Amino acid sequence: MSVVRILNVSIPEPKSHFLAPYRFEVTFECLSPLQDDLEFKIVYVGSAENTALDQELDSLLVGPVPVGVNRFEFVAEAPKVEKIPKEDLVGVAVVLLTCSYKDKEFERIGYYVDNAYADEELQQNPPDVPQLDKVSRSILADKPRVTRFPINWDDPHRADAPPAQGADGSDAEMDAEAADDDGEDEEDEEEEEEEDEDDGGEVDLAMTEEQDEAELASDYEEPDDDEKMAADAKHSAPVHMDVAMDVAMDVE
Q: Which of 3, 94, 163, 188 has the CA that lies 20 to 30 A from 169?
């Protein structure tokens, strides 16, 4: 079970100017004392084709962290325009809020960002050179893509992930052995394990503790959601959020 859980992320200004700062209000819960600070980062993924162009807008150390519910505001400047390919300045991008402990990421929250001209004429006939003073930014704040990664909180640098657990907190391997003892055949056991596997770690912020333990700890993979989101964004048409982005943003 994770010692720290992000309970809520609020974006006070989901619609703003392209060059306006990014502002997040983060609420998280700490279940037991931590030896070190938590590190939060805001990363702008402006190009789906080159991860080297990802920009870390800012990083923030939070600590010492008391046990209980904590809140803080995280503000970062807009991405540097010169580091974004000209063809990617206007259109769909991704912004990530990452959370780490002792350099090991345990949660990532991604949002699609629609950078579009507010003027209808410019939407229909975009200039060859983007006019950023006329570009507005819309963050789809109500549909984040949340990915959680199990880490060993006592020693985050251990390579092995925590064992999968059943809904009652028992070890998954012990559950399997008990199933064998009850005479369940191998085919039924495999179907049961498939039902317990997660769907890539993408969950809602309101996921219950029981679901978190049963689903998120079962299959660990290295973080790659930023690349997936950026690829999805690259193939989305740069249209107004109210028209097509609502469909494009559904969590798979």
A: 188
